[in-house]
Amino acid sequence: MYLTRRKWLSFGISFLIGAAALCCFSFFHKMSVGFNPFIFKSYIAPFLFGGCLGANIGMALLRIHLLKEKLEERVYELENLLPICAKCKKIKLEKESAHEGESWIQVESYLTRRMHSECTHSFCPDCLKRLYGFDVNAAQGDLSLLTAAKGHRRKQDSGRPEK
After folding, report:
1. How far is CA 145 from the centre of its chain?
2. CA 96 to chain centroid
3. pLDDT tens profile 65-113
4. Residues near 46 by beta carbon (within 8 Å), at least 6 away in sequence
5. SS3 of the chain: helix, strand, coil, percent, to 5
6. DSSP secondary structure string, 85-112?
7. What φ, ψ does residue 84 adopt, rounded to 5°?
8. In which element (H, E) is residue 60 found?
């Protein structure tokens, strides 16, 4: 509905501008040649021809504008695609100059760079269950199970040498 109204408005305004422009040129041409410029019958052809010409130009400009809007939307969509490795989840950075090679960084570094915020780490319920045997759904707020899961991890880590 809005686009149809916009097309008709563009058509009408372009028609009137084209018609007025060609009638003005016709008026000044008639004055310079020496004809009477105030005979209005002689403006019918320039009015119609100028109106049609102006309307065609206006519709072409409107179409160009609409295609430009669609192109900007598509470019916005493509710019927001994020190239990410399917295995290690590193993100590919764009080359800033022709001399630089491709650069892959960790997700956390990318988010810190782009959003100016720090990342914290936690476990989702599936990983918590797979790594520690702790079922969040079964615990239902029982903190002793969470403490037991943390203690279980500390026992596993205790065999490792300190850095």
Report:
1. 46
2. 21
3. 889 999 999 888 877 788 888 888 888 887 765 556 678 888 888 888 8
4. 19, 22, 23, 25, 26
5. 65, 5, 30
6. -TTT--EEEPPSSTT---EEE-HHHHHH
7. -130, 140
8. helix 44-79
| Amino acid at site 29 | H
What count of Cα atoms within 13 Å lies in the side-chain half-sphere of residue 98?
A: 0
Q: Model-level pTM?
A: 0.45
Q: Report yes or no: 117 and 123 within 8 Å, Cβ to Cβ.
A: no
As a dihedral over the C-alpha atoms of residue 27, residue 31, residue 34, residue 35, rounded to 10 degrees, the angle is 30
State which amino acid sits at residue 37: P
Q: Degrees (nearest 5) of the Cα angle 52, 56, 60?
A: 170
Q: What is the largest CA-CA distance in the chain?
A: 108
Report CA-CA distances (Å) from 160 to 21, 46, 104, 133, 154: 87, 92, 30, 21, 10
Q: How many residues does the chain have?
A: 163
Q: Are 135 and 116 in contact (CB under 8 A)?
A: no
| Backbone phi and psi for residue 94, each to the nearest 5 degrees, phi listed first | -70, 150
